[in-house]
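stuck on this one:
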Amino acid sequence: MITVATDAAESVLAKHHTAWLEGSSRSNMAFILGDWGFGKSHIRMLLVDSFHGRKIPYVSDHVDGKSGSLAHLHRNVPRWLESLHLGPYTGIRSVVEDALNDPSRVRDWCRKHNTWFAWQLGNAVRGMEWAWDLVPGHQFQFPDSSFNHMKALEALLGSAALLASFSKGGIVLLLDEAENVSRQHDIRGRRKTYDTLGRLAKVSHLLVRASAYRHGERSQRMLDKLDAIGAGVRQHDLFNPRGYYAAAERRVG
């Protein structure tokens, strides 16, 4: 059976994950580049399985020019936090109540952080049921504004910092079809998207793993922009398709 030869990329990514968990990673964003059908989704599936087994918190999503646009982070973060996975638990509430399962320690963390997210999480942990609807940031989804964008970012970073304080590393963001970052039709949207990725790349409690079509103009434009703003992106290029077909012919022949 001929399979996708992703062993090298898997090995390197595993080393990056270990370094991140140990706090010694120098770059927190990596792009997995490859042609259609050459293993990007396969690696993503293996990463998810690994995160489940190692109980590493992660969020998996697709990037597009609409609801999944990173220029509108305030629309994404509530969905991300509601789908946050940690072992068998899903959603920020289940992660806090069941996976962390230490209300006193969570309350202590909230008291030490003077942010809107910490305030609402503290209310939720103290038994105020209504506060759980506010913790993921649903109220910031509309309208589109810089204030809502920053409050959503605060919720994401706060969640990652909380998990890191429990020795969970933080949150891994798995973003598929990342070449769609360049689908923003206006320059302000594209600039905001690159600015968002640049911010995420520099946060120690976030690990971003994105997959993108290798030869697409959109992919190259995105990587050039991220390089220009100093995001420190690692690139893992899956093997050349010509070499794959040559190897396949040898094995079949």
Remarks:
- Residues 239-253 have pLDDT under 50 and may be disordered.
